[in-house]
Amino acid sequence: EGFEDPRGCIFLYAACKPDFSDANSILYGNNFEGVKFSDLVKFLDPAFLGSHAVAEIYSPGRTLSIEIKNAETLALGDDSFAGQSAGGRTLTMATLTNDGAQRVVVTCVIK
To answer: Using 50, 70 and 90 to split pLDDT, how confident is the model at 34?
Structure first.
């Protein structure tokens, strides 16, 4: 609300519709320890993903229920996830690994 955050913000890829109606809506966020998308790296652990496979995304006036299907690391610059689908409407969340050497991509189905 009118202030700058040096840690950046979570944002929807510009080519995606803001109502999450695209086949694959893509959210990007920074990985700063304890804030923003830093917890996405936890989904790389199959045990964590298995016990946290359902979540909600809150936005003004709307709550999306999601089922987390997959988490993987990709090389920086590898945007192959942009064309992927988890079956149905897909939500993809992307950030960097803790060391910034790779991209973490978490793929979800919007319920």
So the answer is: low
